[in-house]
Structures are given as C-alpha cells and as structure tokens.
Amino acid sequence: MRIHFRLCVALLAAVLPALIAGCSSGGKKRTFIPPAGTSTGFTWDPTGGFADNATYLREVYVALAGNDSTGNGSQANPYFSLTKALTVAVPGDKVILSAEVHSGGIYRQDVKGTAGAPIMITGDPGGGTVIDGGTNCIQLSDAEYVVIQDIEMRNATGNGLNIDDGGTFDTPAHHIVFRRLFIHDIGSDGNQDGMKLSGLDYFLIDNCEIARCGGNMSGSLIDMVGCHHGQIRGNNLHEGSGNAVQAKGATEDIYIWRNRFEAAGARALNLGGSTGLAYFRPQGADYEARNLTVVANVFISCEAPICYVGCDGALVANNTIYLPNHWVIRILQETVTGFIPCRNGKFINNIIVFNNADLSTYCNVGPDTAPDTFTFSNNLWFSLDSPGFTGPTLPVAETDSIYQQDPGFANAGAGDFHIGSGSPAAGAGITLSDVKYDFDQAVYASPPSLGAFEVTN
Ligand SMILES: [Ca+2]
Ligand SMILES: [Ca+2]
C-alpha cells in the first residue's frame, strides 16, 4: 500500500500557471463569542449565526406515501419527493423528510432562503431519515441561507452532498449550515467525496460523521474547491481514502476545530492540493489555500496527519496526534508554475505520540516549497518505542519544544487524550490569538497547555 501511495504522489503533479496575486487577507481578526455565564462557548461563526436565530413559518412534509401531483406538503397530504418540496419551498420553510429511506439523486438550483428566513431541509427529529443512492444523494447549485440537518446519506456513486456555485463563480453558494449529518459509504474506487463543496462561502459543518468515501487513495470526506469563510467543527471523520479534509482551488479562511480524525486516508488534512486552473475561485489565484487554521483536533492512526500543499500560511496549533503511521507533517507543492511556494506554515503547541518504527520521516519536504519559512515551536514529541529519542528532524530549528516526556494521556487506548496538571504539556504552550477553546470547548489557560485538551483538574 505504501509503495502504491508513493507512486501516486509522484504522478500527481498538475502544473499550471496563474497570474493575478490575490488581495491581502493576512491578520484577519476573529471575534470569539462565549455564551454568557458559562466557561464554554463557540468560536467565531462565519455564518453569522443565522441558523441558530431562525424561526420557520411553515412546515413542508415529504414521505414515501406522499404524492408530488396531488400532495400539498401538509403533514396529512405530503409530497413524495424532496425535489418537489424544494421546487415549492420559499424562505422560512422547514422541509421535513419522514423517517424512511428516500431515494437519492436529488438536484435543485436556486434554493434560496434569507438571513432572517432560511430554508431548512431536515430529517425526522426522532431520527431514521435516510437518503440512499443516486449520483449525489443531494446536489444544490447556488443555494443561499439553507440548513441541512439530521439526515443519513449513503451509497451515492458520486458524492454524498454536492454544493456548488452552478459554475458561475461570481455568484457563489453561500450561508449553508450542515449539522448532525451522517454521510457514509460514498463511491467506491476513486475521487468520490462525502461532501463536495465548490464555490461555497460562509458555511458551517457541525457535528457530522463522515466515513468511507472514495477509494484507491482518492476522494475526500470533505472536499473544498474555492470555498471561503467556513468552519468545520466537532465532526467525526474516519476511514477516509484520499483525505479527510481537503482545502484547495484558492480556498481561504477555514477554521478546522474540535474534529476527530481516525484512519483518515493518505493525507488526513490536505491543506491545499492540486487543482486545475479552470476551477480556481477566484480565477488567477496563486495559492491553493491560505489562512487555514487547525486547532484542538485529535488525529488517530493517520498516514500523514498534516499536509501543507501549495498553501500560503496555515496555523496548526494545539492538536493531539496519536500514532501517525508514515509521516507527521508533509510540505508539498503540486501546482508549481506561477504559484507561490508552500510557505509560512506554523506548527505550534501540538502533542505528537508515535512509534519510530511506523515513521518514514517526521516531516516530508517536497520540491518547490519554502520550508525555511515554517515555524515549529512548543510541541511535545514522545516516542513510544525509542526511549532515546532526542527530537525530530525538521526543516528549520524548533523552539521551546519538549522531547521524550510522556504527556500522560488519561486513556489513549480508549481514545481519551485528556491530560492532568502533572503533565509536561500542562501550561507549556504559547498564547495564540486564534486558539481560544479546546476540544471540549473549555477555555485554554494562559499560557495554554499543549494538545487538544486544556488541563481539567
Ligand atoms: Ca453561481
Ligand atoms: Ca474530490
């Protein structure tokens, strides 16, 4: 498998020029808003919270016993198909799918709510709603202010959910919230994705489980091409093929927080990637991704947890990485001519527990990158099988890190990576403005502990 993977990487390079440098977006300020009176809270919400503040004016029902010709969408006389319900839906409608197995292959253009009156597509609140099969279980083009929640999607041949801008890049899809979805067993042999997002701005993927999408080390659990201003939080992403999360095609300003990644594919996080020039949004961008932030996630048994690939500035901080099984970090460039070299990545306040026998190298650096612009600091590295480990080989010197001291996870075998006050990771971090809440949404101390969990006792 590893031989095939290396071969695959060697064959991947897509080399195309770009001209226009994007506008500056460095130093973007986020406003963190904890709920009053609690010690826990949410980070900044790129959707502005429209889904939490919405009130719905009408319910529209879909059930297998319904009828698209004679139904009227009432609970007593429902429609048969989600397609029909979306055809008649207006802002403020809540479309409710019965707790049955509905057929996939649903496509609709211009499903548009408003900030004050979004359109919701929801499964039965009691659970049991499934959308099965189709090329895509659901595809929406140029949707706006839509909430999709509480649905299991499975067995599509292409993608589970496909959200796009209809190929008209200057009018992206925008303001979409995905929550409590279970998307699994999508595609079989190649580039098939759980969630395929192309030209989507202002979105939130919250508390979803996505597993087993694509095949042959291709396909993503979540694939973003030219997406901007999103948050991916609290999801359980496992058994990927190509990767768990890919952010490419000039994807920008994505906050990846509190997710659990297990056996997530060839590259758990592809921070950047390899995109054909025709698909960049905006056109002419000279980066695959920029301003990505990866905070307080847990990575278990991943081939290559963190891959910076043609990425201009990504912060990877306060993550817990357990038993990586080939590399810890990769710095790569797959779009080359006319593109900035992969640069300015930061890897700070992380805990990495590993077996040297599993690793090829700690940090794999490919050609056409700028590894000397990276920052490594305040990480804890602990080898389980090499007691004499004295620190990883990295492209630039690491500062203020801790080597070969057991972080003292509560119960790593059971997936519990909490640490106690006696841990060498406790309070060993540096304060970062984009690091506020841990995996449990507890506030990080100042200075913070390392890893995805602040000390809780
Ligand atoms: Ca469009
Ligand atoms: Ca894909």
- N-to-C CA distance: 43 Å
What's the overall geometry? globular
* Secondary structure: helix percent: under 10%
* Number of structural domains: 1
CATH-level-2 architecture: 3 Solenoid
Beta fraction: 25-35%
Number of strands: 34
Spans of at least 5 consecutive residues whose pLDDT stays below 50 are 1-30, 32-42
| Rg, nearest Å | 22 Å
By helix and strand content, what is the structural category? Answer: mainly beta
pLDDT averaged residue by residue? 91
The number of helical segments is: 3
Strand order of the largest sheet: 1-2-5-8-11-14-17-20-23-26-29-32
Q: How would a crystallographer describe the biggest sheet?
A: 12 strands, parallel
Fill in the keyword field for this structure.
disordered N terminus, twelve-stranded parallel beta sheet, binds calcium ion, 5% helix, mainly beta, globular
Structure description:
Helix 3 (82-88) links the parallel strand 1 and strand 2 (93-97). The protein has three helices and 34 strands. It has a twelve-stranded parallel beta sheet with strand order 1-2-5-8-11-14-17-20-23-26-29-32, with helices on one face. With 457 residues, it is mostly beta strands. Mean pLDDT is 91; it is low at 1-30 and 32-42. The protein has helices at 2-12, 50-53, 82-88; strands at 58-62, 93-97, 101-103, 106-109, 119-123, 130-132, 136-141, 144-149, 152-154, 159-164, 173-179, 182-186, 195-198, 200-206, 209-213, 220-225, 228-233, 236-238, 243-248, 251-257, 260-262, 267-272, 289-295, 298-300, 306-309, 311-317, 320-322, 329-332, 346-348, 351-354, 363-365, 375-377, 380-383, 402-403. It has a single domain, classed as Pectate Lyase C-like (3 Solenoid). The structure holds calcium ion (CA) (2 copies). One calcium ion binds at residues 191, 193, 196, 219-220, 223.
